[in-house]
Predict the structure.
Amino acid sequence: MKICIFYFSGTGNTEIITNLLQKELNNLNADVIVMKIETIIKKKIKVKTEKYDLIGIGYPIHAFNAPKIVYDFVHQLEFDEGKKAFTFRSSGDPFLNGGSTKMLRNKLEEKGFDVFNENLSIMPTNVFLQFKDNLNKQLYQLAQIRIKKLAQDILEKKIHLQKNSIILTIISKLFSFMETTGAKWLGKYIKISDSCKKCFKCVRNCPTGNIIVIDDGGDDGGDATIKFDRSCNLCMRCIYECPTNAIHFRYFRFFEIKQGYNIKPIISNPNIKGDYLSSNTKGFFKHYADFFGL
Ligand SMILES: Cc1cc2nc3c(=O)[nH]c(=O)nc-3n(C[C@H](O)[C@H](O)[C@H](O)COP(=O)(O)O)c2cc1C
């Protein structure tokens, strides 16, 4: 079976889930191609979904919905009547299932796709809260188990569609609208401190090309100024990946995790155990334990 997975990931969580899914599908003898949504959009690649038996779309939850870049991608897809599609998303909290899946499903259906499976992975949150390392590790380990099962379900074309109540859809639309509108404004007013070394990593890596270099005439880039435009998706990548920690929101700085966010060293460190959640977990994280059936 030939599968193409398209994904967007701001800070790596959805990318990790995508890679796990590709590995598990490969283990089950599926032929899987993975493509980054941001590359497709930046390079204006014409995607031909008819070449594949199945397509998958992976995304992080941003305010109960998929980020705008994912909708931009779906918008540019060509009509492919009856093509089976699945979606998977990563959120930082199981609250309200990360939001409604109805809006994205509807958009895919308008393009002729037959969405049969929608999956949610809980990964560490990349905003507001710094989770403990052993919780981050455990969320990754639990995701690994669930993705193994998802790979089987996808190949069996198991139907698993989230029930989206009207209330959930309204909440999701409302929050998502506020987030998308706020992103343009918050993204425009991101500021760069004097510790910036003008390496332009942020410019190269911004998924929406929102970070622009204004050349002030110098030969070595030293006189260049970095500006932010109005197409920010609030993915947080520029803030967390800046080598000199020079990029921050001007307003709503509490949105950033102070210590930054990078799950990769936690995953690869064998000394960090994934032993935070259990059946005895009480307080805020009890709903996490419940989500995983611990
Ligand atoms: C702008 C923004 C909004 C978010 N909104 C939610 C949310 O509504 N619910 C939630 O559980 N997590 C939310 N998160 C957390 C992310 O969904 C979560 O950390 C995700 O795994 C990040 O994936 P990525 O690393 O692939 O970007 C939000 C993150 C960002 C940056």
Notes: The first strand starts at residue 2 and ends at 7. The chain has a mean pLDDT of 96. The beta strands are 2-7, 31-36, 54-60, 84-91, 114-122, 190-192, 211-214, 225-228, 247-249. Residues 9-14, 60-64, 90-93, 98, 123, 125-127, 179, 234-236 surround flavin mononucleotide (CB under 6 Å).
